[in-house]
Amino acid sequence: MTKAGTLLLLLTAIVAALAGILAFAVSKFFAAAREATKAGREGGTETAFMAAAMEEALQKMRTQERAMQARAEASERLSGEIIASMTSGLLVVSQEGMVRTLNPAGQQLLGLPDSDWMRNYREVLKDAAPLADVINECLIGRRPIVRRTVKMDRGVGASHLGITVSPIRDVEGHEHGAICLFSDLSEVADLEDQLRLKDSLARLGELTAGIAHEFRNGLATIHGYSRLLDLERLPTDFRPYVQGIRQETEELGQVVTNFLNFAKPAELLLVPVDVGTLAEKAAEEIRSEA
In terms of pTM, does the model score above 0.90? Predict the structure, then answer.
């Protein structure tokens, strides 16, 4: 073989090797492209699935949030209705002394007009100093005050208030204000005054009756001794005096007896009654109206 033939054969072998390498590279490239396309399709499916799952979770969270917000609004609305419907006064004060809540019944009991009372409670209760003092005692002492009665020193609103004040504590036990419930005890105080007056009058009546009994006993003794005196055996000048003593003791004894009869309870008298006559009188009274 000549030198030119050998060179041609060598070049042919080199070209064939290069063509094989190129074909192998192209096949690898296409295989890698197919794998990448397949992986991309699978990855896109997983991404879409994850996105759908996240969207569903977010939708559930939004639904729960709306439900919680609706429940919170309903609870707040119910609390407002309960506070507005209370017949007792409700006053909520922060630890710094700012009024947070004052219901309409409290405004009426304190004689306050409709206004924004989100101010210091001392300023709001400037005309109700006893109530402000009780709230201040609770805020400083940090202990509840139960069923305390105070007298209001003014002519507007309730004259007597029954007050209960309790500290407001969080879950950790820290105080951050006070809640005050107060009610009008004016009628109760008036009844107590009437009962005290009645008791005083009853005691006075007992004392007066005792004095009247003792006085009547003395008059009876004087009258009895005057009766024992024989007028025939007395001098003529002394007889009118004895008769005067008898007459005066009798009159005074009758006055004391009438007083005691008025003071003691009336006795029950049972007498027969003609029902027919009573019915005729009742019919006569209502005949004109009928």
Answer: no
